[in-house]
Amino acid sequence: MARSQMAFSLAFHIIFAAISMVMPFLMYAAYRRYLKHRDPIDLQLTRAWMKGSAILFATGAVSGTALSFQLGLLWPGFMEHAGPIFGMPFSLEGAAFFLEAIFLGLFLYGWGRIPERRHLFFGLMVGICGLSSGLLVIAANGWMNAPTGFDWVNGQAENIHPWKAMFNRAWPLQAIHMLCASFMAVSGAALGVHALGLLRGKGRAFHLRASMYLMPCLVISSFLMPITGDLSAKSVAKRQPEKLAAMEAHFETGSRVPLLIGGIPNEETGEVKYALRIPGGLSFLAFGNFNAEVKGLDAFPEDERPPVLVPHIAFQVMVGVGGLMLMVSIFWLFARWKKWDLMADRKWQWLLLLLAPLGFIALEAGWVVTEVGRQPWVIYKIMRTADSVTPVPGLGWNFIVIFGLYGVLGFLSFGLLWKWFRIESEREPES
Asked: Given pLDDT bands bounded at 50, 70 and 90, which one contains residue 417?
């Protein structure tokens, strides 16, 4: 029950964390262009994205605060040992969060009160602080996948070096991959919302201008995703080979191992049905050599093997969505080269609307791979998840309360977001 509650809380919060990392930069870009060209549509777009950022920031603050309490209440064994080691990135994350709130307040209430260039700078700082906050949390998660900065002696951490723990081997690639995934998810979702506005036939100039900012973000992040994903897979193959075996449903150690596309693994028999196999694909993905040996789950003790079905399916979903977004981006670039006006095509608008939730689905799937693939360890090769959870029984009611709280927050947040979106998109641009 503790794991289920934590998984639900993280799945909810990560949506708002990703938006806080991306949306302020879009707001800044629109405002910067307004100050340069004085186009009222850019000002209208800045205000719309500003209000959306404020609403979702408030929701993320509430869900993030509740999540921090859950770390201590549900995982006391984990926090007892891990807190002194990676407390630094969490402390810095808190500072970045408060700075983000301050700069967001200055940007929200600074219209007409402070010089425009300073106002623009405050908007940029909202984005930088939000990005820093997210990347610092990923540093802590990276440490759970690649623990360093301490000596583990008789069940206790000694010779602690917080800086080494913070700058662990897993952090750089996890951070870059998460950043690209966030830009892809947020820009894709926002494009879907503005495509809906075009389909409704209101605020056409507003929605077209929004797509001018969003589509390049989607294209760039879609092209970067397979690159960062390939580097991440090679890193996981070296640091956590059993995680790679689980997410690829690779049961037996061997050479020239095929890459599976799709498929349903059976953990009891070690077979994968209905999969398309690319000869040598996994060997090349992991080590850049089609003939390389890749460890299977049989190379590890049974009590140290992660589950297979969930991370394998999540990995397939993540890769599938990324590939689809890449194909859409390539088609958009081709259409630009041919000078086709895709945004005027209702079929393209419907496609963007249908694609809107997929980026966040891929984002969630990626975190499922990261977290479930690390099991049974909460700190890889150091502490088991079962040894860190709270012994307090009766967490069911607690889960129900959290579920209800987040459900109300989500309903109110997206209801307000839709209301402001309609008001701003249908309003006449200010001169």
From this structure: confident
